[in-house]
């Protein structure tokens, strides 16, 4: 299975002018989405002072959606509707759809959010559920999908996996009384490289075709922004009898995923990055339909289904309140639910998803590719490998990266450059020892912001 790619964006000589950047914004069909977000002001960013947003003040340049997306204006409206429901009818909110509310009754809110998220990850609504947080969901799915045997017990993962993923995998191996150092296989780039080639990953899969149990990789690597070839890697690993899971924390709301068509076994993600659902917001998980089937051939009282750590909310609504302790799992990902979900968390998530419902990931991805290509073009213009004080360690192919360029600075420059950017009202994040991660988000960032960022960034370097 291959992913069709358009040609890499090419920019003319006049691309290095503010007028050209403005012309790209004027022609941008998605530009109107910026008005649906509250952008922190430059003054607040520079001073770090907490204040109510002043929409009349100059907005900051917010390039940190890879860490925390900014607040959609819909959140206030949705939260007000939620509070009205709670205050007006109390417990009846579980079963009552209120007129003029953008939210479904409480027991259906998770399905409302899941339906929106399913379009973002390329899945059927029944294969997705809004619940928990990323690491909790990863633990739950590893409990279901990691079944080590005498011969197959190793988990293959990214050498620079986000720490919570690393810890989760380590703990599951130890839970089975196995040695984590012997059974964690870390896949890293070649010496001197930052990008992990697909061929390198496939070679590790071949090497562990007989003793590998699970392959778990990030859809997009948080440090470099590399976008892995999910369909090719998944197909290759499954052909060698490995279960394949993907951590889509940095891929959700960022790239155009097709988890169902790519036959991914399971996936997890958070929603506070490109999903814009708020700090620590509710996460999501995907379980392919082939793993979510419930078989009643042995009778209604003896359903057969994939083992999981079960909870009350994963039981079918038709029998949930019978309280007879006869578990009848919801078919699909919904059967992996545990407890009653927080309606407040779901409210923020549904509000954020309402913005995505107005567009498509294909359109957002198209703009994102052009944004990062423009950023790369401006960063490299008028520089050479010998003169520049940084390297871009994200893949040069815009289709092999997400909405992020990771810029590795020469030693000793990171904190000074970061301080200069923040004082100018530009929000990026840094990763030691020297990386600035720059993430222009297609929903609310502009080409003009990219242009002005590069001006400030290069100015900071020249002053040092």
Automatic annotation (TrEMBL):
This enzyme catalyses: L-kynurenine + H2O = anthranilate + L-alanine + H(+); 3-hydroxy-L-kynurenine + H2O = 3-hydroxyanthranilate + L-alanine + H(+)
The record ties this protein, via InterPro entries, to: Kynureninase (IPR010111), PyrdxlP-dep_Trfase (IPR015424), PyrdxlP-dep_Trfase_major (IPR015421), PyrdxlP-dep_Trfase_small (IPR015422)
Q: What is this protein called?
A: Kynureninase
The subunit structure is: Homodimer.
What GO cellular component entries does it have?
cytoplasm
Q: Is Membrane among the key words of this record?
A: no
- Which species does this protein come from? Penicillium antarcticum
Q: Where in or outside the cell?
A: Cytoplasm
Q: Which family does it belong to?
A: Belongs to the kynureninase family.
Keywords, ordered alphabetically: Cytoplasm, Hydrolase, Pyridine nucleotide biosynthesis, Pyridoxal phosphate
* Pathway(s) per entry: Cofactor biosynthesis; NAD(+) biosynthesis; quinolinate from L-kynurenine: step 2/3; Amino-acid degradation; L-kynurenine degradation; L-alanine and anthranilate from L-kynurenine: step 1/1
Q: Which SUPFAM superfamilies match?
A: PLP-dependent transferases (SSF53383)
Which positions bind pyridoxal 5'-phosphate? 134-135, 162-165, 247, 250, 272, 312, 340
| One GO BP | quinolinate biosynthetic process
Record EC number: 3.7.1.3
Q: Which residues form the signal peptide?
A: none
**Cofactor list:** pyridoxal 5'-phosphate
- Please give the residue positions where the record annotates the modification N6-(pyridoxal phosphate)lysine: 273
Top EC class for this record: hydrolase
Q: What job does the chain carry out?
A: Catalyzes the cleavage of L-kynurenine (L-Kyn) and L-3-hydroxykynurenine (L-3OHKyn) into anthranilic acid (AA) and 3-hydroxyanthranilic acid (3-OHAA), respectively.
Among the GO molecular function terms of this UniProt record, one is: pyridoxal phosphate binding
């Amino acid at each position: 299975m291959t992913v069709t790619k358009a040609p890499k964006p090419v920019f003319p000589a006049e691309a290095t002018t503010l007028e050209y950047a403005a012309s790209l914004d004027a022609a941008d069909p998605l530009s109107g989405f910026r008005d649906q977000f509250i952008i922190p002001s430059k003054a607040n960013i520079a001073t770090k002072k907490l204040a109510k947003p002043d929409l009349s003040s100059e907005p900051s340049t917010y390039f940190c959606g890879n860490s925390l997306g900014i607040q959609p204006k819909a959140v206030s409206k949705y939260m007000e509707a939620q509070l009205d429901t709670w205050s007006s009818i109390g417990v009846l909110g579980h079963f009552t759809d209120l007129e003029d509310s953008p939210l479904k009754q409480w027991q259906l809110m998770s399905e409302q959010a899941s339906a929106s998220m399913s379009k973002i990850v390329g899945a059927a609504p029944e294969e997705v559920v809004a619940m928990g947080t990323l690491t909790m969901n990863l633990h739950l799915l590893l409990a279901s999908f990691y079944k080590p045997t005498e011969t197959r017990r190793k988990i293959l993962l990214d050498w620079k996996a986000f720490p919570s993923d690393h810890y989760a995998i380590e703990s599951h191996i130890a839970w089975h009384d196995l040695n984590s150092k012997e059974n964690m296989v870390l896949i890293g780039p070649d010496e001197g490289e930052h990008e992990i080639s697909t061929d390198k990953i496939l070679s590790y899969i071949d090497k562990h075709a007989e003793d590998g149990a699970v392959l778990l990789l990030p859809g997009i690597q948080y440090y470099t922004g590399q976008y892995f070839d999910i369909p090719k890697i998944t197909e290759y690993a499954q052909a060698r009898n490995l279960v394949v899971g993907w951590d889509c924390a940095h891929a959700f709301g960022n790239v155009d995923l097709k988890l169902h068509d790519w036959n991914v076994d399971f996936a997890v993600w958070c929603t506070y990055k490109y999903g814009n659902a708020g700090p620590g917001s509710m996460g999501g998980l995907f379980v392919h339909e082939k793993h979510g089937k419930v078989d009643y051939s042995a009778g209604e009282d003896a359903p057969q289904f994939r083992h999981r750590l079960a909870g009350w909310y994963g039981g079918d609504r038709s029998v949930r309140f019978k309280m007879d302790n006869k578990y009848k799992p919801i078919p699909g990902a919904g059967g992996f639910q545990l407890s009653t979900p927080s309606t407040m968390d779901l409210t923020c998530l549904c509000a954020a998803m309402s913005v995505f419902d107005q567009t498509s990931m294909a359109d957002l991805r198209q703009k994102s590719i052009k944004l990062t290509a423009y950023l790369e073009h401006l960063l490299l213009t008028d520089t050479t490998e010998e003169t520049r004080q940084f390297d871009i360690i994200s893949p040069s192919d815009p289709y092999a990266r997400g909405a992020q360029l990771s810029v590795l600075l020469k030693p000793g420059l990171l904190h000074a450059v970061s301080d200069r950017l923040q004082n100018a009202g530009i929000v990026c994040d840094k990763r030691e020892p020297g990386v600035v991660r720059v993430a222009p988000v297609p929903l609310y960032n502009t080409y003009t912001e990219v242009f002005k960022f590069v001006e400030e960034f290069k100015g900071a370097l020249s002053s040092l």
